């Protein structure tokens, strides 16, 4: 019986984190996309691209976690956990980059460029989207850290 | 005799990486600051703040590395390496955030907001500053990874 580190893959905490990631990412995507011409701005396109990568990744791993939780059997192969850790770290860096770009551009639009780029409602939607992207990034970092923490114990079993 | 992982603290590769970080950070700061009213924009202020944190950190660790290289004696205490790793990771995330913000805002200025915010020369200076910040981030990530890699071997010695 391996020790169950809460938050690492195959636990219910991990399932909750993954679902949170997917939820915040979908929220960020919806605030950004619905009825807004986001493709006019580079950094908003970047955010949409990254969220399009994050959502399937989080949902897939949520399904894996749900399977482990309900079957009550975690199969942790070193190679699979290694791939998950690397993917998590790369997506976490990309999410941070996208969230910061969106936040800084929407702030610049509001404070400097004025109402010529976004009306009052649009501006607050861009800001909400950036906030959701930041929340999604923090959860993504959490699961990356938990899985990284798990890695040495898997190595020592080999 | 401990194994010398190239790039971890106390090696000449680490000294080179730290000097590179400091150099690119100073370049980014100079492109941003000299003769430019950067404090009008939030994300440029953020970049300057983060570079003001990164430069002393990199230079201090460069001095430690230089001392280790020339004395040919590395003293690696677990606690000290742990502090360095945590500091490196936090600074690496902050550098990425600052670099992305600067890059996206300067891109937005050039493509959308037009010449009202920056003349031709200023715009290219902002862009150069963002590029230097990205290079500094990549070196910062490199040294964070190398030092993280060193950590488990120090734990196993205890």
Description of the structure:
Chains A, B: Belongs to the Casparian strip membrane proteins (CASP) family. The structure is a homodimer of 158-residue chains. With 158 residues, chain A is mainly alpha-helical. The first copy, chain A, has one domain (12-157). Chain A is 80% helix and 0% strand. The first copy, chain A, contains four helices and no strands. Chain A has helices at residues 12-33, 42-71, 78-113, 120-157. In chain A, helix 1 (12-33) runs antiparallel to helix 4 and helix 3 runs antiparallel to helix 4 (120-157). The longest helix of chain A has 38 residues, at 120-157. Chain A is elongated and about 60 Å long.
Largest interface: A-B, 23 and 23 residues
Main sheet overview of chain A:
none
Give the mean pLDDT of chain A: 85
Give the helix proportion of chain A (percent range). over 70%
User: What is the β-strand count of chain A?
Assistant: 0
The string of secondary-structure elements of chain A, in order, is HHHH
Overall tally of domains of chain A: 1
**Computed CA radius of gyration of chain A, to the nearest angstrom:** 18 Å
Question: In terms of per-residue confidence, which ranges of chain A show pLDDT below 50 for 5 or more consecutive residues?
Answer: none
**End-to-end gap of chain A:** 15 Å
Shape of chain A: elongated
The protein's oligomeric status is homodimer
Supply the number of helical segments of chain A. Answer: 4
Strand content of chain A: under 5%
Structural class of chain A: mainly alpha
